[in-house]
């Protein structure tokens, strides 16, 4: 088994909209994604989620709700990405562009799946429905999905 690297991923909601960011660099560049990044030493997952949201779009989360975890295993990468997913509609500030993200509000009825990572259509609808999730995706060397699964954690 590959070692795991831990990440957070935050989705911000207001009315019937969700905030996504066009990634400017690194993993996921040129795709719309949630806000997040690598867990640092001496911080909790929750602190990481708050920090990354603030660094990447300027918003201050007053509270976050955890929806679950997805593991992403990309062929050729030395780590499995363990991504902890949070949502919030309790925040201060207005989204601003950063070096890493260009934020934009989307109607929940008009999600730009064609500009998101390929796994998004499988799990982001669950986030939009505020459903708990616990999933796994495996990708080939061309970043095509070759396996995916969700654990049934309803009632947990
Ligand atoms: P730097 O550039 O070092 O500041 P950092 O912000 O720490 O980076 P980054 O942006 O590389 O980390 O983290 C990757 C982000 O992508 C995390 O928020 C998790 C998220 N992510 C990882 N795999 C994903 C996938 N398959 N689909 C998806 N988001 C994914 O939608
Ligand atoms: Na990031
Ligand atoms: Na970051």
Automatic annotation (TrEMBL):
SUPFAM superfamilies: Nudix (SSF55811)
Positions in coiled-coil regions: none
Keywords: Hydrolase, Magnesium, Metal-binding, Nucleus
GO biological process entries: DNA protection
Locations listed in the record: Nucleus
Pfam families given in the database record: NUDIX (PF00293)
Major enzyme class: hydrolase
InterPro entries cross-referenced by the UniProt entry: 8ODP, NUDIX_hydrolase-like_dom_sf, NUDIX_hydrolase_CS, NUDIX_hydrolase_dom
Highest taxon in the source lineage: Eukaryota
GO molecular function per UniProt: 8-oxo-7,8-dihydroguanosine triphosphate pyrophosphatase activity; dATP diphosphatase activity; metal ion binding
Entry cofactors: Mg(2+)
Chief location bin: nucleus
Family of the protein in this entry: Belongs to the Nudix hydrolase family.
Assembly with partners or alone: Monomer.
Name of the protein: Oxidized purine nucleoside triphosphate hydrolase
Provenance organism: Dinothrombium tinctorium
């Amino acid at each position: 088994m590959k070692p795991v690297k831990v990440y957070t991923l935050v989705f911000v909601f207001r009315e019937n909209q969700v905030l996504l960011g066009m990634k400017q660099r690194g993993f996921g560049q040129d795709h719309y994604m949630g806000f997040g990044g690598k867990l640092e030493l001496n911080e909790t997952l929750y602190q990481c989620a708050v920090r990354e949201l603030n660094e990447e779009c300027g918003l201050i989360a007053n509270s976050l709700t955890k929806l679950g975890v997805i593991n992403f295993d990309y062929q050729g990468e030395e780590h499995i990405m363990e991504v902890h997913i949070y949502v919030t509609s309790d925040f201060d500030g207005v989204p601003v562009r950063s070096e890493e993200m260009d934020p934009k509000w989307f109607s929940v009825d008009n999600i730009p799946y064609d500009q998101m990572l390929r796994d998004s259509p499988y799990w982001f609808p669950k986030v939009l429905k505020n459903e708990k999730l616990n999933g796994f995706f495996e990708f080939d060397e061309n970043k095509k999905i070759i396996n995916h699964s969700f654990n049934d954690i309803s009632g947990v």
